[in-house]
Amino acid sequence: MPRAPYVTRALEPVLRRAIREFPAVVLTGPRQSGKTTLLRHLFARSHAYVSLDPPDVRAAAAADPRGFLDLNPPPVILDEVQQAPELLSFIKERIDRRRERRGAYVLTGSQNLSMAHQVSESLAGRAGIFRLPPLSSREIAGRRGPSPVLATRPGRARPAMLQGLALWQTLVRGFYPEVAAEHGRDAHQWLASYVQTYLERDVRSLRQVGDLSQFQMFLRALAARSGQLLNLADISRDLGVALNTVKAWLSVLEATYQVVVVRPYSANVGKRLVKTPKVYFTDTGVLCYLMALRDAAHAAAGPVSGAIIETAVLAELVKGELGAGREPRVFFWRTSIGSEVDFLVETGGRLIPIEVKASSTPRPAMAAGIHALRRDLGHVVGPGYVIHTGDIVLPLGEGVTALPFGSL
């Protein structure tokens, strides 16, 4: 089967700038998000490439870090460096010896918590750290610049690039490059292999999970609750697993970028606010696979359509911020009396409220939560959006615009 065509990533200019500013650049993200492809595309001519995934290479790096770095001098890309964390302190030593050198080491890793700890311990102040998620809908469509939702000066939204059944087919396949950019591939088979590989490699390397089948049940239970308030005690009881074990498993999913925990926005507005977070999978393809959804029409018409499109919108918001080299600050708003906004993106000193609807027919009533939020928080609330599955851009009054998912 021919290789999928290269898709230009939003993070490219950020990485090109970082390579001129930092002695080391660290790129993290989930497995198969395209980290290696991106770095080799950008730096193949300037940097040698070494993967630390093969056991013999990993063993050589662990046994003699100085000798390994002597054999692989900078500028060099060290792929999957979390496999040989011993290297980091020796890389620090070499950077400190020649502090003026920029772009000497480019490192990649797939595990958030372990990578973050190791880099902060060894390369604090010496490395630019970035995260590459799966493809965004803008990257797939070849569109440049920020989403109209995240733009500093919101402009006119383009017509929807994805709508109707084509949108749901894309959501069921997901956004990992190998299935999003290579339409001939069997997406269900790829996703099944991805989940199994993830279980066997990442879960066991981060934490001992005695019963992988039980962990798979946890994955499916969490998928069924995507976009809902997260009650780990309920999951613990349903699965017959200790609460601390469920908490540990959730931390593994966060550490390997499989889920995003969205916390409620808190502000002193004299109202009782819900304090429980929500959980979302980072890729709609993985979410649909875990919910045994293979058919786009069933996904669109079924009871979880709202959760799927909400997951897709959150993923686009996160990808938009990461593509600009920023850490996403996404929250939700919910009061004890039921006033709710699905997402609040904190950017540029303001809050962008976003409601998500699985309908293709936007109506003014869909903006009620955003209007209530603006009454509570006032001038810090920027333009609001109702994201829907149709194809029209429609003003809904009081600074709220209905925007198709396909034009995000």
Describe the structure.
- Strand 10, helix 17 and strand 11 form a beta-alpha-beta unit.
- The mean pLDDT is 88.
- The protein has 17 helices and 13 strands.
- With 408 residues, it is of the alpha/beta class.
- Helix content is 42%, strand content 16%.
- The protein folds into two domains: 120 residues, P-loop containing nucleotide triphosphate hydrolases (Rossmann fold); 271 residues, no CATH class.
Distance from N terminus to C terminus (CA atoms, Å) equals: 31 Å
- Count of helical segments? 17
Rg, rounded, reads: 22 Å
Strand order of the largest sheet: 7-6-8-9-10-11-13-12
> What number is the mean pLDDT?
88
Which structural class do the helices and strands define? alpha/beta
Helix content: 40-55%
Our estimate of the beta-strand percent is: 15-25%
Poorly predicted regions: none
Please give the largest β-sheet. 8 strands, mixed
Q: In total, how many domains does the architecture comprise? A: 2
User: Order of helices and strands, N to C?
Assistant: HEHEHHEHEHEHHHHHHHEEHHHEEEHEEE
Number of beta strands: 13
Shape: globular
Question: Concise description?
Answer:
Helix content is 42%, strand content 16%.
Give the helix/strand layout.
Elements: H1 12-19, E1 24-28, H2 35-43, E2 48-51, H3 55-63, H4 65-71, E3 76-79, H5 86-97, E4 105-109, H6 112-122, E5 127-131, H7 137-141, H8 164-173, H9 177-180, H10 187-206, H11 212-223, H12 232-239, H13 243-255, E6 259-264, E7 278-281, H14 284-290, H15 296-301, H16 305-323, E8 330-334, E9 340-347, E10 350-356, H17 368-377, E11 384-388, E12 394-397, E13 400-404
Helix pairs in contact: 3-4, 5-6, 8-14, 12-13
